[in-house]
């Protein structure tokens, strides 16, 4: 072994990797710095998904001429001096490593002017080395330009995704901070096109309109739980917290924001957005708190839209537990969970009509289930799933199906999610959603191969309002969307007109379906054009397929299994997950100790 100390250059690049994963991480750090500097306006410009250029302009306090050379030194910060300061910190930054890290892997220029200087200072670095220093004319504030990110770290460069994907990540960062700081005016330009603007009115609702569009924002309800509406003592908290409750000056945890009415929901969790003391964070347990608040209001695999601010004493939350500070650790996680869940549940229940529960019999007394506000499945719902039973229904009483697989007899449905079938060698559990995805995928692939994709022409074209991120994705992938059966045309701004949609989407609401598909595409990483087409086909099938939580009649179950049998790969869904699990007779005997 040859142990040696890394050269400063290599060490700096490695350290940078922790903070700067992709262009959006640079945008996050620079936007946070602008906000910490008290900016009222933050403008973000990018070129080529941020790979070519990222520029952030703010009207904050600026950096003095004397201090400018310091900002790129590692551990140089104006926000913290003693370790104890960490528990009082109210700024977004405090480690003093972002600018040093970004500078190590790019060409960076800062032009900054505080109020008491008549000219700005301009400093350029390349790969962390100063290349020029001088003065320049500029308004009060700071402009930081980052060019050719990762030019000297080819491994990182290689892993960057398509420009549209990187732009999508940047868009998320900017829009999320616009919601955390509604009093700040944000704008985002990608390749010269303004894709986002907030008005800085100070109203969270206005920020929601700018991010989600008016239609969506209108379907959201305010959550505002500033009082301590339930007994904190119920949660077995320490004396420290209890004394704070008695002390009116201390900051009692509060939950404020907006959450969707049950009619508004999404196919992914990415619109569950949380800020803790105005810091955008990710937290699975908070996701869960919101999802649970909608219990019985939403179908399985449908998620609400929520933008929630949690405010609490800085000492109640550790913000120094994650390299990019994207996660935090609460001192009282159970309390926060409960508080968020209750605050949301209260407004959701208040905004919902009295639920009409009814017993829905899945026919023939074979199985039954409770459905929320639903009705017993009838043959008219069959076509909704593209299962044309009129055409293929087996004769009355005939429920034995011949499948490539062995002969199976469908027995029933479990948890409105899995079908149980019996075969000559034991039991099959079939995932109804995965199975239907496979069926639709092969149907769509066959139609695509014949260049005859079936569309549903809408009687009235439908206008749908997209977020700028979704609109950018639609523009980028219009061909692939047309190929699977959408007929879309621009209708001004970020609105589009849907004239037709893929037939396999069944009776899905076209606007909602398009939004779900675009949201799913924005999330995914799609490097090659061919894969884009494939991914869109898979996404459309996923959206069109029967969901978990849907009650199927015996005919529907049989038809689904029959159609699955006709596919070329009945055992997996297009994502590669299994459609079925087989419990053989031998296995059953072993489990019951009969062998
Ligand atoms: P941190 O934010 O953790 O302090 P950074 O490396 O991000 O570390 O920034 C270093 C310092 O540079 C900050 O503490 C701040 O004093 C100064 N700075 C950075 N960006 C700005 C800005 N946009 N306006 C004013 N000062 C800034
Ligand atoms: Mg910082």
Structural class: alpha+beta
Ligands in the model, by name, code or SMILES, are: adenosine-5'-diphosphate, magnesium ion
Beta-strand content estimate: 15-25%
**Which CATH architecture of the largest domain would you pick?**
2-Layer Sandwich
For the record, give the distance between the C-alpha atoms at the N and C termini, rounded to a whole number.
Answer: 56 Å
Q: What is the name of the CATH topology of the largest domain?
A: formyl-coa transferase, domain 3
The CATH superfamily of the largest domain bears the name MutL, C-terminal domain, dimerisation subdomain
User: What's the number of structural domains?
Assistant: 3
Q: How confident overall, as mean pLDDT? A: 82
Number of helices: 19
**Overall helicity:** 25-40%
Q: Please mark out the parts with pLDDT under 50 across 5 or more consecutive residues, or reply none.
A: 228-249, 354-403
CATH class of the largest domain, named: Alpha Beta
Number of strands: 25
Radius of gyration: 28 Å
Strand order of the largest sheet: 5-4-3-6-2-1-7-8
User: Largest sheet, if any?
Assistant: 8 strands, mixed
Overall morphology: globular
């Amino acid at each position: 072994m040859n142990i040696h100390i890394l050269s400063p250059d290599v060490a700096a690049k490695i350290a940078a990797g922790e903070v700067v994963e992709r262009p959006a991480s640079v945008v996050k750090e620079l936007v946070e710095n602008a906000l910490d500097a008290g900016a009222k306006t933050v403008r973000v410009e990018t070129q080529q998904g941020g790979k070519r250029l990222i520029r952030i302009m703010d009207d904050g306090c600026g950096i003095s001429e004397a201090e400018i050379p310091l900002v790129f030194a590692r551990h140089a910060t104006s926000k913290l001096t003693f370790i104890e300061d960490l528990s009082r910190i109210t700024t977004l930054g405090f480690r003093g490593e972002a600018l040093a890290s970004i500078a190590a892997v790019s060409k960076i220029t800062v032009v900054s002017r505080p109020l008491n200087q008549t000219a700005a200072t301009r400093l350029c670095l390349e790969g962390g080395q100063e290349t020029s220093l001088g003065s320049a004319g500029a308004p009060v504030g700071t402009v930081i330009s980052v060019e050719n990110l990762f030019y000297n770290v080819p491994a990182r460069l290689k892993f960057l995704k398509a420009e549209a994907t990187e732009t999508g990540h940047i868009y998320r960062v900017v829009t999320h901070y616009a919601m955390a700081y509604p009093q700040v005016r944000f704008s985002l330009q990608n390749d010269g096109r303004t894709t986002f603007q907030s008005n800085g009115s100070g109203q969270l609702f206005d920020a929601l309109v700018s991010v989600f569009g008016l239609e969506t924002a209108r379907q959201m309800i305010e959550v505002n739980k500033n009082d301590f509406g339930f007994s904190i003592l119920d949660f077995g908290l320490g004396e420290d917290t209890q004394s704070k409750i008695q002390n009116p000056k201390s900051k009692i945890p509060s939950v404020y924001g907006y959450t969707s009415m049950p009619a508004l929901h999404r196919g992914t969790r990415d619109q569950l957005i949380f800020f803790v003391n105005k810091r955008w964070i990710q937290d699975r347990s908070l996701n869960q708190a919101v999802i649970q608040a909608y219990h019985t209001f939403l179908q399985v695999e449908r998620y609400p839209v929520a933008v929630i601010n949690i405010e609490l004493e800085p000492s109640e939350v550790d913000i120094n537990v994650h390299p990019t500070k994207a996660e935090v650790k609460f001192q009282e996680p159970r309390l926060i969970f409960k508080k968020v869940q209750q605050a949301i549940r209260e407004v959701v229940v208040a905004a919902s009509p009295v639920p009409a529960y009814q017993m829905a019999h899945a026919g023939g007394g074979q199985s039954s289930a409770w459905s929320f506000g639903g009705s017993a499945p009838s043959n008219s719902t069959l076509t909704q799933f593209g299962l044309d039973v009129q055409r293929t229904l087996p004769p009355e009483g005939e429920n034995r199906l011949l499948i490539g697989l062995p002969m199976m007899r469908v027995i029933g449905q479990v948890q409105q999610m899995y079908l149980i079938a019996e075969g000559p060698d034991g039991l099959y559990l079939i995932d109804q959603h995965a199975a239907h995805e496979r069926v639709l995928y092969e149907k769509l692939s066959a139609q695509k191969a014949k260049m005859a994709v079936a569309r549903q022409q809408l009687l009235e074209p439908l206008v749908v309002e997209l977020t700028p991120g979704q609109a950018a994705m639609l523009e980028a992938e219009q061909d692939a969307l047309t190929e699977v059966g959408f007929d879309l045309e621009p209708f001004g701004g970020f609105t589009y007109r849907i004239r037709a949609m893929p037939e396999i989407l069944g009776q899905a609401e076209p606007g909602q379906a398009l939004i779900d598909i675009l949201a799913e595409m924005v999330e995914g990483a799609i490097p090659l054009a061919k894969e884009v087409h494939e991914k869109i086909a898979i996404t459309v099938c996923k959206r069109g397929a029967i969901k978990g939580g849907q009650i199927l009649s015996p005919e529907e179950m049989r038809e689904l299994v029959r159609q699955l049998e006709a596919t070329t790969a009945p055992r997996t869904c297009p994502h590669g997950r299994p459609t079925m699990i087989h419990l053989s007779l031998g296995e059953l005997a072993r489990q019951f100790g009969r062998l």
